[in-house]
């Protein structure tokens, strides 16, 4: 579900810190450097990186193509290859038979079985296409806020890591404690009370 | 600031208390909602509400869903010590309405449906679409931020123990009696 969807899910972040230097140029550089690599016809089973909001399968971060008004709009793409278990079993059985016939043996050692399995997975990964998942985001640089259009834990963990690597600034997820600490405008003494809070029991 | 993973788990109860307080506020003190957004004509519980009881050995979860679903089961759950852990809401201004769900432990928003705008028909319309759509999403996120701030400021004050908790307890008992 992305920006264009009729129903969206959003995880809110506070962007910690500011970029030093020409912001659009530096963001563009970070996006280009960490653009999603194509892994079809490669042995990699998973890849994650930035892509364009409007053309997620043809990422392009030239100029200010990711700037909409005062917002940066782009997307995280995660490509994964999934090899069906039955397909793996079939190819592993065939390869095992070939190897046994070639060596005139009846069994393979544990290490040989593992090495053969790794080789089969590798060979299949090259032939199996990846499945892409695209998660849009809107970054309001001036307000230091970012909306990530997914509540999936794995996608959230990926964006937190990739964002820091790309722009050298961090993302702080807003959940009850961080929202209370950062956005509620509490005084120092109120923050002290917040830290000591324990659950309320509304029923006796 | 505390370690984030520790803080997430240690204070997840705040999110559930917030949603429980919000349900109480919707039913008993809706003027508070207007102080978070003067445009708010009403905030209604939508077609799904989830309760979790963590006072028991294993977490008990009750989900009530459906447009015509009664909330009696949920009210019974409150009496037994459960809190609201997820709630679907309908936010209405004079002309428009937004639908969305909030999860207590994360404060994540899901299934957010805004009153518009229509999808862009050409790439040239994309800028306007993004800005209008963002404004409509922002209205709900700002509202949530403000209403959560009101809750937290009350939660860390003596008013919570002296006034708010007794009022909520009274409300729960009144549900029992009605």
Concise account of the structure shown:
The complex is a heterodimer of chains A (204) and B (178). Chain A is an alpha+beta fold and 204 residues long. Chain A is 39% helix and 23% strand.
Based on the model shown, name its key terms.
heterodimer; A: 204 residues; alpha+beta; 2 domains; seven-stranded antiparallel beta sheet; 7 strands; B: 178 residues; five-stranded antiparallel beta sheet; 6 helices; globular
Protein described:
The complex is a heterodimer of chains A (204) and B (178). Chain A has two domains: 11-81 and 129-174, no CATH class; 85-127, no CATH class. Chain A is built from six helices and seven strands, in the order βαβββααββαβαα. The model of chain A has no long low-confidence stretch (mean pLDDT 94). In chain A, strands 1, 2, 3, 4, 5, 6 and 7 form a seven-stranded antiparallel sheet that branches. Chain A has helices at 23-33, 85-103, 110-127, 153-167, 176-183, 188-195, and strands spanning 8-16, 46-52, 67-68, 71-80, 131-140, 145-148, 170-173. Helices cover 39% and strands 23% of the residues of chain A. Chain A has 204 residues and is of the alpha+beta class. Chain B has one domain (4-177). Chain B is α+β, with helices and mostly antiparallel strands and 178 residues long. The longest helix of chain B has 30 residues, at 126-155. Chains A and B meet through strand 1, helix 5 and helix 6 of A and helix 1, helix 2, strand 5, helix 5 and helix 6 of B.
